[in-house]
Amino acid sequence: MCAIDLLYWRNVKQSGAVFSSVLLLLFSLTQFSVVSVGAYLALAALSATISFRIYKSVLQAVQKTDEGHPFKAYLEMEIALSQDQISKYADKVLLYTNTCMKELRRLFLVQDLVDSLKFAVLMWLLTYVGALFNGLTLLILAVVSMFTMPVVYEKHQAQIDQYVGLIRTQVNSVVGKIQAKIPGAKRKEE
């Protein structure tokens, strides 16, 4: 199952399990430190595996069977990353980093006045968002949106597309008027 299937709730049980687990983790992080949450999760996992191992050992002793270690298949599984996989992911990270650095350089050094002004307005708005919400709250809102918006859009696509089109037309009209009034703000045709 891929991430898209989880977000579109194709399998309700799996999507519900992932959604509730992620929300529980994020809500835990709002109350406890990352170290504490990590330690508690590790202790819970370790308690479960130790209990299962002891249970299987007692069961084997009582039934006088020799099934071996209950996690033998997982212990023998290869989990190392290959050089090709590491190289592929490193190349993607490098490409993304270079693209971001070039775009930030372009915005901060005002290669295009309109884009830099848009960026400034976005940063100004983010100061207000930052004053209202902390990072974890925004992350919780993002997770809830990721699990609800695709389904809502899928069910009401026609109406949403109609309203987005109207908004886009209005925004483009206002931006065009502003660009016409600001000297040197007209975008170059590419």
UniProtKB/TrEMBL annotation:
Its source organism is Seriola lalandi dorsalis
Q: Quick check: keyword Transmembrane helix in the entry?
A: yes
- The segment(s) forming the Reticulon domain are 3-190
Q: What is its main location?
A: endoplasmic reticulum
Q: What keywords appear on the UniProt entry?
A: Endoplasmic reticulum, Membrane, Transmembrane, Transmembrane helix
Q: What is this protein called?
A: Reticulon
Q: Name one GO biological process term.
A: neuron differentiation
* Topology term for the membrane: Multi-pass membrane protein
